[in-house]
């Protein structure tokens, strides 16, 4: 770039101002990128909290299902006439009880593994 003899240093000032403007634009771009990154991080953290809350709710539901299944099974085992309630029951009476336990286990497994209706 040629210097104008009437205004020595003017072209230097113009060039310097262009450099300063470019530097300012770069700083603004970096600040914008930082803000965009912070926004993405905030959204990701919010998503993580939501996923955690849903997982906790599912775990609580699974525990409730398991607790109900166990309570039901125990209640059935404690019913009068149940083989478990009669310590003198013969081994021949055990298969119906084993079938009941198997049905309860199957029902519980289905409740725990299938999505809620």
Structure description:
It is built from 2 helices and no strands. The protein is rod-shaped and about 120 Å long. The chain has helices at residues 10-78, 94-113. The mean pLDDT is 83. The termini are far apart. Helix content is 76%, strand content 0%. By secondary structure, the chain is mainly α. It has one domain (10-113).
Structural class estimated from helices and strands: mainly alpha
Radius of gyration, taken over Cα atoms and rounded to an integer in Å = 37 Å
SSE pattern:
HH
Tell me the strand percentage band.
Answer: under 5%
Task: Tell me the number of helical segments per DSSP (H or I, 4 or more residues long).
Answer: 2
Number of domains: 1
Give the helix proportion (percent range).
Answer: over 70%
Q: What's the main sheet like?
A: none
Low-pLDDT stretches: none
Principal-axes geometry comes out as: rod-shaped
Distance between the termini: 77 Å
- The total strand number stands at 0
- Assembly annotation: single chain
What is the averaged pLDDT score? Answer: 83
Topology:
Elements lengths: L9 H69 L15 H20 L4
Helix pairs in contact: 1-2
Keywords:
117 residues; mainly alpha; 2 helices; 0% strand; rod-shaped
Short overview:
The protein has helices spanning 10-78, 94-113.
